[in-house]
Write a structure and sequence with these properties.
Blueprint (H helix, E strand, L loop, with lengths): L15 H14 L4 H11 L8 H27 L4 H24 L6
Helix pairs in contact: 3-4
């Protein structure tokens, strides 16, 4: 047998779920060997570093909105009145949420499948 062109061995430990996903993706790819599939991923695959820091801000805004809605509902149930200032505050927070969501989506890379 001739000298191998690939002399560096790589050992990867996977749990059952990861192995199942690897085997499913390998089958979908049409590539016959795990080694060839992994080499293909290394050479042509993509790694995305997704920044989820905006989610923290969005979750905070959603929590604030939920709290405000609960307070407004409690006030309406007690008094029977809805106050314009309360509704305006909710509208402002919802605008911030929509702005944050649009900003998050515009910053994410488009993934090819």
């Amino acid at each position: 047998m001739g000298r191998r062109t690939r002399q560096n061995e790589l050992k990867v430990m996977l749990n059952d779920d990861e192995l199942y996903i690897l085997e499913r993706k390998l089958k979908q790819s049409g590539i016959n060997s795990k080694s060839a599939f992994i080499r293909h991923l290394i050479l042509y695959g993509y790694v995305y570093d997704v920044d989820y820091s905006c989610l923290h801000e969005m979750n905070t805004l959603l929590a604030n909105t939920s709290n405000n809605l609960n307070q407004i509902a409690k006030c309406v149930n007690m008094t029977g009145n809805v106050y314009k200032d309360d509704l305006n505050e909710i509208k402002e927070i919802m605008e911030k949420i929509w702005h944050t969501q649009k900003s998050m989506l515009s910053q994410q890379p488009l993934a090819k499948q």
